[in-house]
Amino acid sequence: MTDLLRPPAATPTDTNERSRTGLSAEALRRGIVDHLRYSVGRPAAALRPEHFYRATALAVRDRMQDNRVASTQTSLDLGRKVTCYLSAEFLMGPQLGSNVLNLGIEDAARAALEGLGVGYDEVLACEEEPGLGNGGLGRLAACYLDSLATLERPTIGYGIRYEFGIFDQEIHDGWQVEKTDNWLANGNPWEIAKPDVHYPVNWGGHTEFYSDDAGNQRVRWIPGRVIEGVAYDTPIQGYGVNTCNVLTLWSARAVQSFALDAFNTGDYYKAVEEEVTSETVTKVLYPNDELEAGKHLRLLQQYFFVSCSLQHVLHIMDDLADASVHDLPERFALQLNDTHPSIGVAELMRLLVDERRLDWNDAWAITVATFGYTNHTLLPEALEKWPLGMFGACLPRHLEIIYEINSRFLDEVRAKFPGDEDRVRRMSIIGEEGGKSVKMAYLATVGSHAINGVAALHSELLKDSVLKDFFEMWPERFSNKTNGVTPRRFLALSNPGLRGLLDRTIGDGWLTHLDRLRGLESFIEDPAFRQQWRDVKRANKARLADFVRASTGVELDPTWMFDIQVKRIHEYKRQHLNVLNIVTQYLRLKQNPRLELAPRAFIFGGKAAPGYFLAKRIIKLINAVGDMINFDPDVNRFMKVAFVPNFNVQNAHLIYPAANLSEQISTAGKEASGTGNMKFMMNGALTIGTLDGANVEIREEAGAENFFLFGLTEDQVQQIKRDGYRPADHIAANAELASVLDLIAGGHFSHGDTEVFRPLVDNLRYDDPFLVLADYASYVECQDRVSAAWQDRDAWSRMSILNTARSGKFSSDRAIAEYCDEIWNVSPVTVKVER
Ligand code: 26Q
Question: Where would I find the beta strands (DSSP E) of 96-212?
Fold first, then answer.
């Protein structure tokens, strides 16, 4: 470290810790006071909680900054390999609480703020979370950054600094209404703008041949426009270690020279307009909506952040005295989070061949050795494809490079499978069906030395379906890496009651060694422990009930079973199957006034893509059924329904810890993994679920007797599809199901309106790829078993404790350790910091 950057030594007058770095309550208090004065700049009388939030965040950031500098310096000094996680989404959630936790200064932060007369929780609540992701995939990236830092692996996360993240959801008259998420309105204290770290990104135009000095034919890309990407860095502090990694998000700005070259006013204003359009590149996060998938701007976003990231990596390589670009695979691992960054394969080839003038074969060997690809979906409609014409108009040089990659690759296929031209056609990166297109999953696969799925079942299906031919070509490249979630955020931070009980019972080692939760098993026969376990859950339910009352007006009783389904709204996730059971129970109560049901609160949350017609009607249906049930005295003694608006990371903190029952009811084979299922399990919820995604492994770990299984297996789903699915048979065979569908279609929940839910019911009756009616009877029967089990409080508590005790596998620390050992080949780097 240069002396310039070394923190000044304590002076004789400064006998206490310094206000920027000290970890005591007093040092932190002084740090906050300094920031209130010098950064927030408000007179004391005008200070509100949000000002304390900003000052506290800045004081906490200061404390990460020494770790951050030391972490970079250490990995540079030691020449250690760095993992780069390329992801179009990072759903980070609120930062203050987790940074304070990871730094180990919770008591200090509480005391410091108390000393200033303001509550820590009140300050935490001021944070506007960065919602820079849609759901599972973006949140997974955030969990992985937490684990990478905690496991002391030098890492850079690369992504997009969207000015507007995922929309805020409001519910008006039962319908979803989208509001723009202006998360930067009050500034972002966590990021540090790096205006000097910027790269040009070309777009459009054409290519031409030229001869270089040595007389070799080369290609030049003459772009139609150039956009500039600027880095914004957010520190990622590991838990209980000095390692502090970085999330670098790229923001688009116009290239200044455009404006400077404009001499007359016409050009000047044109140049300024150009600037305005350049900045739209990082304006908004796209929803995970297939209909949106063909948009130019989406491709530009992907190429923009990947190009900036790869230029940055090569720039770091240039600065290394002891390495050349040929050493890239020894110095960096580049992981593709789904296909969204997969244009990186062609971009790295372009940078190496066109700009660094490497030989094609050398460049290709480097590329394949450096990239890994994680697949997150098997749904054919969700696999990214770009129309060839559009792709060529936007990225003409990349299309040429992809053709070259493809032609060399298909020669390899021919060599390995002589005479199998059908296989060659199937494996082409350029698809022919329904107009020519570039198949990004194939590009990512061909360009990576390691390809993985995100749960055991998913990885098997991947090798069996979408990437079957590729598996047959390179079986050694394929593996499974079951997802995981960070126990720091999803247990310690969001469930302080359980955290306290765990610490008192088994010590606090579980925060970094989640397997140690197994230690709880020896307490399940202790009635006092089970009572404490229930008390914690009860308090969490009361906390959620308060939030539900405030956000929806629905009154929930925390003594009832809390049955929760929170996730994006999608047909394959089958929130409507949940609704069919609710209406079934409603009908039973109406038809039999003497029936007693185990009282349950059915709680939903999740956003629908704005253009997803059926998903939006599912939200309306949930709310309509809720409005009927919640106000009907015949039934509301036994059931209530609440739709929590705007499910995001912040309110997830209230939701997972309050669940008794976790709904994981997707059609088998459709949910790649799921990660909410893991968050529920850790927090002691029992799962009702299909054999889909990671549910399979959750059941294996928990034990079949502690899991409510229902529904068709993936094999059976395939079989039914081959034979022809006939929903009418299921209706004919089940009088309850027929009445439930008639009730919804007949307008019972819609004031007699028979139109509003017709598309949904018609879909179920005639045209449902997700086989809802085929699983209906099994699901309702299973829910009846759940209700029976709930009656035995002690038995339920035992099962709940066992679910938490056996959730260790689902820590992102386990998942990341596997990626490090088996894909990235990176080991821990201990960072020392002088304090
Ligand atoms: C694609 C094209 C155009 C616009 C948007 C998109 C897009 C954006 C986001 C497509 C998909 C996503 C997100 C997908 C996602 O979250 N997948 C989930 O990933 C989790 C982590 O592996 C899994 O647990 C879930 O099963 C999977 O659905």
Answer: 131-132, 155-160, 168-172, 175-179, 192-203, 206-211
CATH number at residue 160: 3.40.50.2000
Percent of the chain beyond pLDDT 70?
95
For the cut 80, the answer to whether the pLDDT of residue 273 exceeds it is no
Q: Quick check: 9 pLDDT over 60?
A: no
Question: 89 CA distance to ligand 1 centroid (A)?
Answer: 9
Indicate the residue type of 334.
Answer: L
Minimum-distance ligand 1 atom for the alpha carbon of 134: 9
User: Which residues have any ligand 1 atom within 6 Å of their CB?
Assistant: 134-137, 140, 286, 288, 292-293, 298, 376-377, 382, 384, 454, 483, 671-675, 693
Give the model confidence (pLDDT) of 357-385 as tens digits.
999 999 999 999 999 999 999 998 888 99
Same domain, 97 and 107: no
Contact 199, 305 (CB under 8 A): no
**Residues 118, 55: Cα–Cα separation, whole Å:** 12
d(CA 753, CA 761): 13
Residues 68 and 24 in one domain: yes
Q: How many CA atoms lie within 13 A of 412 on its CB side?
A: 14
Distance 550 CA to ligand 1 centre (A): 31
What mean pLDDT comes out for the span 773-796?
Answer: 98
> Is the predicted pLDDT of residue 707 greater than 80, yes or no?
yes
Residue 179 and residue 86 share a domain: yes
Q: Can you read off the two tokens belonging to residue 227?
A: 């956009």
Q: What is the rounded CA–CA span in Å between residue 756 and residue 614?
A: 11
Query: Cα(first)–Cα(last) distance of the chain, in Å?
Result: 14
Determine the Cα–Cα distance for residues 275 and 13; give it in Å rounded to an integer. Answer: 51
- Asked if residue 211 and residue 314 are part of one domain, the reply reads yes
| 78/296 Cα distance (integer angstroms) | 42
Range of the domain at 510: 495-713+794-809
- Quick one: 38 and 131 in the same domain? no
Domain check: are 592 and 687 in the same one? yes
Q: Write the Ramachandran bin of 213: left for phi over 0, alpha for psi from -120 to 50, otherwise beta.
A: alpha
Rounded Cα distance between 465 and 713, Å, is 16
In 3D, which of 27, 14, 26 has the Cα closest to residue 63?
27
> Among residues 370, 152, 134, 267, which one has the least CA distance to residue 831?
152
- In the reported structure, the alpha carbon of residue 340 is separated from the centroid of ligand 1 by a whole-number distance in angstroms of 10
592 Cβ neighbours under 8 A, 6+ residues apart? none
131 assigned to some structural domain: yes
Give, using CA atoms, the residue closest to atom 14 of ligand 1: 137
Q: Which protein residue has the closest C-alpha to ligand 1 atom 7?
A: 288
pLDDT in tens, 408-417: 999 999 999 9
The token pair at 414 is 């021919």
